[in-house]
């Protein structure tokens, strides 16, 4: 397990650019995260899952939708439930992009065959847009709930 924790920590440092030490407390948080199972059906977390989440969050930061604080160790790794939510949203976004890419491939194949009618039938791609809207709606709801929680506790 210690080697696995080191792999996860190295990936975190590589993706975030935050050169954090691997102190005992951080090792413990990594251990807790790595031994937990996520998703449906439940599966062990992989380094690829971590990289997927970090890249998803960095893309959101780049678009101005997220704050850089979402990459902080204490905000992401120390809170397994929060990490699970981010992982599920990152997977959903990746699946949406993958479906959109598959539709584009089908369109280009139809064009190569010279069938303009099939091309016009394949063009409506509303499903990926709806999935993005669902993610955006969830994020707005989540931010509103967090803001409401902060105001109630003060």
List keywords for this structure.
single chain, 7 helices, 75% helix, 2 strands, 154 residues, mainly alpha, two-stranded antiparallel ribbon, globular
What does this structure look like?
The chain starts with a helix and ends with a helix. The protein has a two-stranded antiparallel ribbon with strand order 1-2. The protein has helices spanning 2-16, 24-35, 47-62, 73-76, 80-112, 116-122, 126-153; strands at residues 37-38, 43-44. Helix 1 packs across helix 2, helix 3 packs across helix 5 (80-112) and helix 5 packs antiparallel against helix 6. The protein has 7 helices and 2 strands; from the N terminus they run ααββααααα. It has 154 residues and is mostly helical. The protein is 75% helix and 3% strand. The protein has one domain (2-153).
Task: Give a quick summary of the entry.
By secondary structure, this protein is mostly helical.
Which percent range describes the beta-strand content?
under 5%
Q: Strand order of the main beta sheet, please? A: 1-2
Oligomer: single chain
Largest sheet: 2 strands, antiparallel
Distance between the termini: 40 Å
Layout of helices and strands, plus pairs?
Layout: H1 2-16, H2 24-35, E1 37-38, E2 43-44, H3 47-62, H4 73-76, H5 80-112, H6 116-122, H7 126-153
Antiparallel strand pairs: 1-2
Helix pairs in contact: 1-2, 1-3, 3-5, 5-6, 5-7
């Amino acid at each position: 397990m210690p080697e696995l924790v080191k792999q996860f920590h190295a990936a975190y440092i590589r993706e975030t650019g935050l050169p954090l030490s691997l102190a005992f407390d951080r090792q413990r948080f990594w251990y807790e995260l790595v031994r937990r199972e996520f998703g449906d059906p439940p599966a062990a977390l992989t380094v690829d899952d971590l990289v997927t989440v970090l890249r998803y969050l960095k893309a959101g930061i780049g678009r101005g939708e997220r704050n850089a604080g979402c990459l902080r160790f204490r905000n992401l790794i120390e809170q397994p439930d929060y990490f699970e939510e981010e992982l599920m949203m990152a997977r959903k976004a990746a699946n949406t992009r993958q479906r959109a890419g598959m539709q584009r491939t089908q369109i280009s194949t139809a064009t190569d065959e010279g069938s303009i009618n099939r091309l016009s039938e394949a063009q409506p791609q509303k499903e990926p847009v709806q999935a993005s809207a669902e993610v955006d709606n969830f994020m707005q709801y989540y931010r509103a709930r967090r803001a409401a929680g902060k105001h109630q506790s003060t």
